Amino acid sequence: MSPTAPPSEHVLAMIEPISWDGIATIIAALLATVVAVAGYSIQQRIARKQRRAEIYSEALRAVEDYLEAPYLVHRRDGSAAARQSITTHISDIQSRLSYYCALLDIHAHAEISTAYKALVSATRAEAGKAMREAWEDRPTRRDRGVSISSRLDRSRSDEAKRSYITAVKKNDA
After folding, report:
1. Could you tell me if 88 and 60 are in contact, meaning their C-beta atoms sit under 8 angstroms apart?
2. What gap in Å lies between CA 41 and CA 25, rounded to an integer?
3. pLDDT, tens digit, 9 for 90 and up, residues 117-166
4. Angle between helices 80-107 and 20-74 in degrees, nearest 10
5. How far is CA 105 from the centre of its chain?
C-alpha cells in the first residue's frame, strides 16, 4: 500500500490563488447587492409613507363627509326612502370615523392620533347639533329650499383640523 496525501492537502493543491480579476468580481457582486438592498429599502420607505399619507387624508375625508351631513338632512324631500338613505349614509360615515380613530391609534404617532380624536369630537359636536336642528326643520319641497342660507359653524372643527394637519406634518414628515 502506498501512502496517500491527507484530503486537506489534496484540496489545497487544487485551489488556485485569487487573482485581481477575481477580487474585482467579488467586490462588484457585493456592491451590486448593497445597492439593490438600499434601493429596495428606500422604495419600501417611500411606499409606506405614501400609504400613511393616504390614511391621513382618508381620515380627514371621513370628517368632511360628516360635516356635510347636516346639509343632506336639510335638503331631504321628506320621503321614507330619503330618510333611510340619509341615516344609512350617516351611519356609514360614523363607522369610518371610528375606524380611522382606531387605525390611527394603532399605527400613527400618539400626537397624530390624539389630534384626530379631538377633530372627530369637535366635528361630532358641531355637525351633530346641526343635524338635530335640520331634522326638526320641514323637508325641502321645492328647488328654492335647497339653497342653504346659514352656514354650519365649523370653528371648532376647523381649528381641530389645523391641529391635526400640523401633527401629521410634524410627526410624519
Report:
1. no
2. 24
3. 999 999 999 999 999 998 998 887 776 656 666 678 899 999 999 999 99
4. 150
5. 12
Contacts of 56 (CB under 8 A, 6+ apart): 108, 112, 168, 172
User: What's the CA gap between 106 and 99, in Å, rounded?
Assistant: 11
Contacts for 118 with CB less than 8 Å, ≥ 6 apart: 160, 163, 164
Task: Dump the DSSP string for 108-158.
Answer: S-HHHHHHHHHHHHHHHHHHHHHHHHHHHSPPP-SGGGTS-SS----HHHH
Query: 128 is written with which cell numbers?
Result: 351633530
Q: Which three cell numbers stand for residue 67?
A: 360635516
pTM equals 0.76
